[in-house]
Amino acid sequence: MSLATTQSTAEIRARNKELIEEVLKVYPEKTAKRRAKHLNVHQAGKSDCGVKSNIKSIPGVMTIRGCAYAGSKGVVWGPIKDMVHISHGPVGCGQYSWGSRRNYYVGTTGIDSFVTLQFTSDFQEKDIVFGGDKKLVKILDEIQELFPLNNGITIQSECPIGLIGDDIEAVSRAKSKEYGGKTIVPVRCEGFRGVSQSLGHHIANDAVRDWIFDKLESDGKPTFEPTPYDVAIIGDYNIGGDAWSSRILLEEMGLRVIAQWSGDGSLAELEATPKAKLNILHCYRSMNYISRHMEEKFGIPWCEYNFFGPSKIAESLRKIAGYFDNKIKESAERVIEKYQPLVNAVIAKYRPRLEGKTVMLYVGGLRPRHVIGAYEDLGMEVIGTGYEFGHNDDYQRTAQHYVKDSTLIYDDVNGYEFEHFVEKLQPDLVGSGIKEKYVFQKMGVPFRQMHSWDYSGPYHGYDGFAIFARDMDMAINSPVWKKTKAPWKEASRAKLLAAE
Amino acid sequence: MAQSAEHVLDHLELFRGPEYQQMLAKKKIFENPRDPAEVERIKEWTKTAEYREKNFAREALAVNPAKACQPLGAVFASVGFEGTLPFVHGSQGCVAYYRSHLSRHFKEPSSCVSSSMTEDAAVFGGLNNMIDGLANSYNMYKPKMIAVSTTCMAEVIGDDLNAFIKTSKEKGSVPADFDVPFAHTPAFVGSHVTGYDNALKGILEHFWDGKAGIAPKLERKQNGAINIIGGFDGYTVGNLREIKRILALMGIQHTILADNSEVFDTPTDGEFRMYDGGTTLEDAANAVHAKATISMQQWCTEKTLPFVAEHGQDVVSFNYPVGLSATDDFIVALSRISGKDIPEQLARERGRLVDAIADSSAHIHGKKFAIYGDPDLCYGLAAFLLELGAEPTHVLSTNGSKAWHEKMQVLLASSPFGQGCQAYPGRDLWHMRSLLFTEPVDFLIGNTYGKYLERDTGTPLIRIGFPVFDRHHHHRSPLWGYQGGLNVLVKILDKIFDEMDKKTNVLGKTDYSFDIIR
């Protein structure tokens, strides 16, 4: 494998261009024209990756994308642990997203925490015909009675809600008043809105603004004493504990984390965030909106950071410390120094096994760029990457800070294209989602799920880097990949391709 | 620092250490947490009869329901036909969910496309999405058939699949004679088992009744074959293979309809098979000539089976036959319908299952079980438990109907071991939680989500159902046939013995009963 490593940049560019032309041939003319805009070979020095993004997916192509509901309930709101999140509409959406995102939290589930429960209005035909608002009223009452320690409720709209004209905002206002000002948040994240998960993030952010922040002034929260070192972690969903292995570093450098958005987060933390001195933003895509809002409304600066791999972690710790005094800056250096022996040991152990290995990524949010540094710390090379639901500002960040010249870029890639690219480029590892995992493993290509960390993690922070390195090694160097061909069968396809 | 390169700690251990524990304790002050005494009080209250009563009085809210929506079942049925690409008309996020759900259970790829309808389609209808979508799918994935179903979005706005497909063909999206069966599968009616039923009926209707007006209706010429319908089944791989083995043993000419046992169990050998196995389209059409059709799951074929009967076939249905009597009934029915003798090998297999039950029944006899899952699975497992002398105390099916409830009551009343047992249609796992606290049982049988009940109530979970995400490969072994009955028996026994060992393994305290022979 690793065909790419033996070629010059110019050769790689030519081959990747050819590859794009090749996949476009399968499409009807109109579709080929549309898809061509989403595929490119990155040119060093350009300000973005030269692809169109955040555009409607084409019908029938097997896009990997999800919907606005997935972006709101599945990503932004779902992890807030002390609130009940109702999947409002038919049963499926809540069922398929039940507990699958691994947003870790500490709490007594079913009593004061509700992340891994599936609350749904389970719409029936009569709810579609006569409207679901009365049912919603009853549901809110039943939640209050049976789950009395919930600190708030969100209503996550599924497709039918917006189509049948339900007024969930009016229900929310009335019930909130009835319950003495309880936080009830209606979210208009119907799955048909927008082109992907992305609009769901935005709608969810706006719901925090409108239904939590805008209520704050009169309440006068929070209750704790502010310090000059208060920060909020924004856009970390604590998948496999990511936010925890990040928080520990921030606290070690003398900062105080007053809120986590939204992994292991609580309503009180959301409400306290306007008191932060700095918002630090990991997943830019899903939470830049609320960060910008807090900057405008409360004057809180925000900075992006990247806690994948020691190079980016050190860079980020220094960047964050740059917003504070010398005490914090010195502590940041001490933290970097403290973890250096661990970093050295991890790299000494795993780099020799991974050096020169090639990776193709296709993920959502921040990962198509953010994890590149971690691979490079292990001597690996990312030869293709793309975003499920990125916008142009994601591709700008990718082009300016992450990808190498001639990297293959594929926006909103579909099953056909991705299989074709991987088959031809033969990377040593593919990092993508559950829907892709078994496709590539069947092809004999090692794979790691880069949404759920393949049930491992955390991958953030120094502790997470050790796990990341271990996992990439076990994926690539598993003995099973040498056994995919029966010994009595002919030479492998990889060899045939190499000989071409 | 606990982390090291020599012994890498992941989430299972990393956060247990003092550094993280202190950090998490300090985080609490920002969470505005509830008073721990109050949390404890409410936790205890949720275990009471009073809470159960309030819980069962729920009219609107569902908490942890054990059912999914129609299109999932439609996709599951569709991939059981040769070279068939399921095409779900509506919002695209739904398809991402079905694919993920099936992949997480089977640990296999799951291929399916969406017509990716968005806001403009909500206003103007999804005709253009259908026209473009069919053309793209046809060109890219070279299917032999595209089976269309719908999400709730397309259903709410009232898109007409028949007309849309016709128009798409006129516009040249796919050839006029290309097979595009369809089924309306609204998520707000029934559950995934309903979707299975609708999709299968749609496909049979397509082939038997004139392909939506482009071919003459098939004229039935009865032959001696038997059609088998598996229904929605997490064990489809193992079960359908076992059924085929039994049919081959008996020498019965047959067609398995919606045979997805290959596509959900492809080898890793360097090739990704998007399509594999499946009922051939020719066999699907010729299935009209069969003598009879047997449904292994009545509640998965409530529309399909009457449709088949209308075409003149004998129809027989079972309720997920597991164990001795149910398998006996199935085998006898096969023999009766086909006129074939039951081979000695099946009698021997039966004898082995009887032998195994006799060897082990002392450990199961009188044990109380709670079961939840799809209506047929619940019925089949309850019937097996009764013949093992166990008591299926609570049988709960979120997608169970009133008719299911009645049939369950008859079953429970038929056995001394079913006295005092109750069936609960339309209830969810939060109801089950109350049942397990107020009327405890020894074991719980259900899918992966049962682990939350196991954690909360301490009732040991035996994983049988769909989905099973957190144990691997069980779908490859059958639950049907005498062999399958043996597998179920062993699953149950393993858990019983594990629990016995767990309860007797304290050194110097309880380990006098830590027997090496059980």
TrEMBL record, chain A:
<dbReference type="GO" id="GO:0051536">
    <property type="term" value="F:iron-sulfur cluster binding"/>
</dbReference>
<comment type="function">
    <text>This molybdenum-iron protein is part of the nitrogenase complex that catalyzes the key enzymatic reactions in nitrogen fixation.</text>
</comment>
<dbReference type="GO" id="GO:0016163">
    <property type="term" value="F:nitrogenase activity"/>
</dbReference>
<comment type="subunit">
    <text>Tetramer of two alpha and two beta chains. Forms complex with the iron protein (nitrogenase component 2).</text>
</comment>
<feature type="domain" description="Nitrogenase/oxidoreductase component 1">
    <location>
        <begin position="67"/>
        <end position="476"/>
    </location>
</feature>
<dbReference type="GO" id="GO:0046872">
    <property type="term" value="F:metal ion binding"/>
</dbReference>
<keyword id="KW-0411">Iron-sulfur</keyword>
<dbReference type="Pfam" id="PF00148">
    <property type="entry name" value="Oxidored_nitro"/>
</dbReference>
<keyword id="KW-0408">Iron</keyword>
<keyword id="KW-0067">ATP-binding</keyword>
<dbReference type="InterPro" id="IPR000510">
    <property type="entry name" value="Nase/OxRdtase_comp1"/>
</dbReference>
<dbReference type="InterPro" id="IPR010143">
    <property type="entry name" value="Nase_comp1_asu"/>
</dbReference>
<keyword id="KW-0479">Metal-binding</keyword>
<keyword id="KW-0547">Nucleotide-binding</keyword>
<keyword id="KW-0500">Molybdenum</keyword>
<protein>
    <recommendedName>
        <fullName>Nitrogenase protein alpha chain</fullName>
        <ecNumber>1.18.6.1</ecNumber>
    </recommendedName>
</protein>
<dbReference type="InterPro" id="IPR000318">
    <property type="entry name" value="Nase_comp1_CS"/>
</dbReference>
<dbReference type="GO" id="GO:0005524">
    <property type="term" value="F:ATP binding"/>
</dbReference>
<dbReference type="InterPro" id="IPR005972">
    <property type="entry name" value="Nase_Mo-Fe_asu"/>
</dbReference>
<keyword id="KW-0560">Oxidoreductase</keyword>
<keyword id="KW-0535">Nitrogen fixation</keyword>
<dbReference type="GO" id="GO:0016612">
    <property type="term" value="C:molybdenum-iron nitrogenase complex"/>
</dbReference>
From TrEMBL, chain B:
<dbReference type="GO" id="GO:0016163">
    <property type="term" value="F:nitrogenase activity"/>
</dbReference>
<dbReference type="InterPro" id="IPR024564">
    <property type="entry name" value="Nase_Mo-Fe_CF_bsu_N"/>
</dbReference>
<dbReference type="InterPro" id="IPR000318">
    <property type="entry name" value="Nase_comp1_CS"/>
</dbReference>
<keyword id="KW-0479">Metal-binding</keyword>
<keyword id="KW-0560">Oxidoreductase</keyword>
<keyword id="KW-0408">Iron</keyword>
<dbReference type="GO" id="GO:0005524">
    <property type="term" value="F:ATP binding"/>
</dbReference>
<keyword id="KW-0535">Nitrogen fixation</keyword>
<feature type="domain" description="Nitrogenase/oxidoreductase component 1">
    <location>
        <begin position="69"/>
        <end position="494"/>
    </location>
</feature>
<feature type="domain" description="Nitrogenase molybdenum-iron protein beta chain N-terminal">
    <location>
        <begin position="1"/>
        <end position="55"/>
    </location>
</feature>
<dbReference type="Pfam" id="PF11844">
    <property type="entry name" value="DUF3364"/>
</dbReference>
<keyword id="KW-0067">ATP-binding</keyword>
<dbReference type="InterPro" id="IPR000510">
    <property type="entry name" value="Nase/OxRdtase_comp1"/>
</dbReference>
<dbReference type="GO" id="GO:0016612">
    <property type="term" value="C:molybdenum-iron nitrogenase complex"/>
</dbReference>
<protein>
    <recommendedName>
        <fullName>Nitrogenase molybdenum-iron protein beta chain</fullName>
        <ecNumber>1.18.6.1</ecNumber>
    </recommendedName>
</protein>
<keyword id="KW-0411">Iron-sulfur</keyword>
<comment type="function">
    <text>This molybdenum-iron protein is part of the nitrogenase complex that catalyzes the key enzymatic reactions in nitrogen fixation.</text>
</comment>
<dbReference type="GO" id="GO:0046872">
    <property type="term" value="F:metal ion binding"/>
</dbReference>
<dbReference type="Pfam" id="PF00148">
    <property type="entry name" value="Oxidored_nitro"/>
</dbReference>
<comment type="subunit">
    <text>Tetramer of two alpha and two beta chains. Forms complex with the iron protein (nitrogenase component 2).</text>
</comment>
<keyword id="KW-0547">Nucleotide-binding</keyword>
<dbReference type="InterPro" id="IPR050152">
    <property type="entry name" value="ChlB/BchB/BchZ"/>
</dbReference>
